[in-house]
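A reminder from the course coordinator: this example appears on the midterm review sheet, so study it carefully.

Given structure:
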């Protein structure tokens, strides 16, 4: 780069350092296709260091720009999610994309957002080397005694005041006080930290020891509320507030260190890059959806995943018990498949037929649950909360997460899953053959006619039919049923459904002392029953919706596929090659059911703890390395018992 290029591009001669000047700078430093952003910034800094006059011009222009554009709002709000409503935030961001808000004169936050206005700017900023950014900070920091230093410190103090009072409001939120009633009876650290900051900023040489203690107490309250929410349930409002409170505490620590001069050049550079990144994503719909999906995942997996742990066998005796439980479910699945064939033979209207399909599935799954049996492919969907809990134990939230525990848990789950699928299939297939033989002996007609039996075999063809795609759709439904189960369990605990039932005058008159039994059952089984009912209607009605919409939507479930093979076999008596090929289709359907539902549950567990794709890949790598060996038993780790 030549000096003339900089001077001409930045328009340094006689042009005020305003928002247009900042946009000129960003356009000059923005890498084009094939260019390295860090290398381009290094060349720019080297040119400035070799030409003192140009460096002085750039410094004066930059300092003038900061003097005319206060940074308080950027420091207090940049890179923070302050939304509490998905719908309102979505409308705001969509409108901001089509009609961006008019920039407010003199607001650094708006000028930064207008300067970094391309979607690629986020990737560019994230790719910058921290050492090079620290070098830029060193070059453009005002010297001691410069008037800008006092102005910047005043902006940092103003931002501290804003964030401190926002944190106080978050600590006084009704949902937080509901989970931490002791804040009413003792010194409230959320209020005290705001008062302490006001007191500190009046001192000549402020000491933040007491403030750090208060912030630690605020963090302890947040963690305590999270643990209680796992036991007592949570709400989206509480989840939003806790995440926002943690962000506020982290921002207060950064601003406090900045105000007291404890941030080095690298840390200041990293903070400024984060602020700019936040402004580039201010109107990003995808970033909003990722954030809200993470919060929703956290809410669903926040409640203790006791049901999921029941589906994970860690030794031979548990595997045998799981096999017998799955075998019992296989017999009921064969009967459910028979009932579905009879419903289909009635040729009911499309929606009515789908409803009765779903009712058949739902009642069958509820019966399986009440009898203590296991539908194999429901396992991974139900273990999302258990995986999230394991990940929470293995990761303190700081540093590199230890993912060995969740990898071993995944291995246990997949081995348990294989045994359960084997139990389902080994009984559903022969029971279907037996039912079909008994039906023929009693009525003289096969359970499925030639045309229907041929269609059942065609549906198992993994190559010439969309069987595997439909198996993936069934896996999605299995995963969603686990989410819905966790959602209902969470709400039952959060709203105190059991206590409401116990104290209901109407139920006490109708049921008498039995109301205690019903209340306890609702407290422990409401989520499981709701998940089974949801899964039943999903599997039964998806095909009807697909026909209405003209889309190839349907489901293939390994247990029902094995039962359908039994009915088709008894009706057609196909060649052994056809039977073996259909068995291959059943095996592949089971594999896709497992991989889709398990993969989604694992991704949810990782997302619920704020980890990205890299952590998911690490889990997958450790999972692969453990599949061929027996995982070591993990020591039992219990959550601390909290006192109310």
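Designed residues:
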């Amino acid at each position: 780069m030549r000096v003339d290029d900089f001077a001409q591009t930045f328009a340094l001669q006689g042009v005020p350092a305003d928002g247009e000047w900042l946009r000129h700078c960003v356009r000059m430093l923005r890498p084009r296709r094939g260019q390295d952003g860090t290398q381009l910034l290094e060349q720019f800094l080297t040119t400035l260091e070799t030409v003192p006059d140009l460096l002085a011009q750039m410094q004066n222009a930059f300092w003038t720009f900061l003097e005319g554009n206060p940074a308080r709002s950027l420091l207090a709000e940049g890179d923070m999610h302050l939304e509490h409503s998905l719908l309102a935030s979505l409308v705001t961001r969509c409108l901001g994309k089509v009609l961006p808000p008019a920039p407010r004169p003199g607001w650094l936050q708006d000028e930064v957002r207008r300067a970094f206005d391309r979607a690629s700017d986020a990737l560019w900023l994230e790719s910058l080397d921290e050492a090079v950014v620290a070098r830029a900070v060193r070059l453009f920091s005002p010297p001691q005694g410069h008037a800008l230093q006092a102005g910047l410190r005043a902006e940092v103090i103003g931002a501290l005041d804003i964030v401190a009072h926002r944190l106080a409001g978050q600590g006084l939120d009704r949902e937080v006080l509901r989970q931490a009633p002791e804040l009413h009876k003792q010194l409230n650290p959320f209020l005290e930290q705001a008062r302490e900051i006001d007191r500190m900023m009046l001192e000549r040489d402020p000491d933040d020891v007491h403030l750090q203690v208060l912030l630690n107490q605020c963090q302890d309250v947040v963690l305590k509320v999270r643990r209680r929410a796992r036991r007592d349930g949570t709400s989206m409002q509480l989840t939003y507030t806790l995440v926002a409170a943690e962000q506020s505490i982290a921002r207060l620590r950064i601003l406090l260190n900045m105000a007291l001069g404890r941030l080095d050049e690298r840390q200041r550079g990293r903070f400024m890059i984060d602020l700019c990144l936040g402004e580039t994503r201010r109107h990003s719909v995808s970033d909003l959806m990722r954030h809200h999906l993470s919060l929703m995942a956290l809410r669903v997996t926040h409640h203790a995943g006791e049901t999921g742990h029941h589906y994970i066998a860690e030794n031979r005796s548990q595997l045998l018990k799981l096999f017998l439980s799955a075998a019992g479910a296989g017999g009921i699945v064969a009967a459910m498949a028979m009932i579905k064939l009879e419903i289909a033979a009635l040729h009911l209207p499309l929606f009515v037929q789908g409803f009765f399909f779903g009712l058949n599935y739902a009642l069958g799954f509820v019966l399986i649950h009440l009898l203590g049996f296991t539908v194999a492919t429901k396992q991974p969907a139900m273990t999302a909360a258990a995986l999230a809990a394991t990940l929470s134990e293995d990761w303190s939230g700081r540093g590199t997460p230890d993912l060995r525990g969740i990898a071993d848990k995944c291995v246990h789950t997949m081995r348990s899953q294989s045994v359960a699928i084997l139990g389902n299939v080994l009984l559903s297939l022969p029971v279907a053959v037996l039912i079909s033989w008994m039906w023929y002996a009693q009525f003289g007609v096969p359970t499925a006619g030639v045309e229907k039996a041929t269609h059942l075999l065609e549906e198992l063809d993994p190559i010439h039919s969309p069987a595997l795609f439909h198996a993936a759709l069934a896996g999605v439904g299995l995963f969603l049923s686990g989410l819905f189960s966790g959602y209902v369990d969470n709400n039952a605990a959060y709203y105190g459904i059991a206590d409401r039932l116990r104290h209901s005058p109407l139920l006490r008159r109708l049921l008498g002392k039995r109301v205690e039994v019903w209340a306890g059952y609702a407290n422990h089984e409401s989520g499981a029953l709701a998940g089974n009912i949801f899964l039943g209607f999903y599997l039964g009605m998806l095909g009807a919706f697909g026909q209405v919409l003209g889309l190839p939507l349907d489901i293939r479930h390994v247990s029902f596929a094995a039962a359908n093979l039994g009915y088709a076999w008894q009706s057609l008596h196909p060649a052994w090659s056809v039977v073996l090929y259909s068995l291959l289709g059943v095996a592949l359907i089971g594999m896709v059911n497992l991989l889709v539902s398990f993969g989604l549950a694992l991704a949810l567990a990782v997302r619920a703890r704020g980890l990205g794709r890299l952590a998911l890949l690490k889990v997958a790598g450790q999972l692969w390395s453990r599949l061929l060996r027996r995982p070591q038993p993990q020591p039992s780790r219990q959550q601390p018992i909290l006192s109310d």
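Residues 315-494+524-627 form a domain with the Glycerol uptake facilitator protein fold (CATH 1.20.1080.10). The chain has two domains: 69-299, 315-494+524-627.
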